[in-house]
Amino acid sequence: MKIVLLGDLHFVSPNDPDLAQRQDRAHFAEAWPSFDAVVKAVRKESPDMIISVGDIVDYFSPENLAFAQEQLSRLPVPCLVTPGNHDYSGASSRAEVETAFSKAGFPLENRVLSCGDTGILLYNTGLSKEETDACPWLDEHLPKHSRNILCTHVPPDLPQTREAILSVQPDKPLAKYVRQLGRRPFETLLPHLSHVFSGHVHFPAQYRVATTEFQLLPLSVRAANRNYPGMGAIHTHDLTQKTTRHIQLPVIAG
Questions:
Q1: What's the pLDDT at 254?
Q2: What is the maximum span of the chain, computed from C-alpha positions, in angstroms?
Q3: Does residue 89 form part of some domain?
Q4: Which of 50, 116, 191, 201 could bridge 79 with an S-S bond, Cβ 3.0-4.6 Å?
Q5: What CA–CA distance (Å, rounded) separates 244 from 102?
Q6: C-alpha angle 119/122/128, rounded to 5°?
C-alpha cells in the first residue's frame, strides 16, 4: 500500500471577497498554479491513499474551502486531512470550520485508519495548545496496532525537532513551530510509533529519535515571489517496504 503525503498548500481562491487579505497573502494566493505539478506527480505515483498534514487553505472562508475542494478533487483518490492552524484562521468559531470542512468532505476529527497491522493516526494540532491533549487519545489507540504512523500539523516538541528546525532557520520562533502533544513527555509514546509526519515549518527535514522516523514536510506548492527551502515537493510512504521517498517536483510553466 502506498501513501502520498502533502505538505502545506495554503489555497486562496481568486474569488475570495477579502481583497486586502488576498493582496497581503499574494505569495500564497498566486501559488495555486503550481498545484498542477502536484497533481501530475501524484497521478504518476498511483497511491492508495493521500493525506494532507494541514493548512489546505491560507485562511478560512467558504470561497477558499470550495477552491481547495475543487483543486483536491483533481487527485486520483480522495485526500484525507488533518488540519493546520491556518484552516481555522479567520473563522468565527471552531464549529464553523469543522462543520464546513465536514460538509466539503474533509472531516477534521482525530481518526485512526486501519491498514492491516498498521494504524495511521490523524491527530488535530490546528487548534490551540489549550484545546489539545493527545496523550489520552493516543494511549487509547496506539495499542490497537503493532505499528503506528502519526500524521499531524505541528511537529512534536523534542530536542531533535528543535535542532532540525534551527539547523535550517536559526531564527525560527520555536514556541510557534513545535507542540508538546500532551501532559507528559512525547518520548514515552515513541516505542509505539514507527513514523511521524508533520508540516507547519514549510521546509523539509528528516531525523530519527530512538526507532521512530520523523519527517517535516515542505510546502507542496511553490509560493510566488518568496522562497521557502525545498518547496514544491511531495512524499510517499510504502507500508509494505516501510520506506519513505521525498519527491522534488519540477516547475511547470504557466
A1: 53
A2: 50
A3: yes
A4: 50
A5: 29
A6: 145
Residue 7 lies in a domain: yes
Q: Which three cell numbers stand for residue 111?
A: 481518526
- The stretch 149-163 carries a mean pLDDT of 95
Does residue 133 register a pLDDT over 70? Answer: no
CB 109 within 8 A of CB 124: yes
Q: What is the pLDDT of residue 218?
A: 98
How many Å apart are CA 164 and CA 243, to the nearest integer?
A: 20
Q: Is residue 254 part of a domain?
A: no
- Distance CA(161)–CA(174), nearest Å, equals 10
Structural domains in the chain (count)? 1
State how far the Cα of 23 lies from the Cα of 139, in Å rounded to an integer.
44
Confidence bin at 247 (pLDDT 50/70/90): very high
pTM exceeding 0.85: yes
Other beta carbons less than 10 A from residue 17's beta carbon = 10
In a domain, 217, yes or no: yes
CATH number where 108 lies: 3.60.21.10
Tell me which DSSP letter residue 249 carries: P
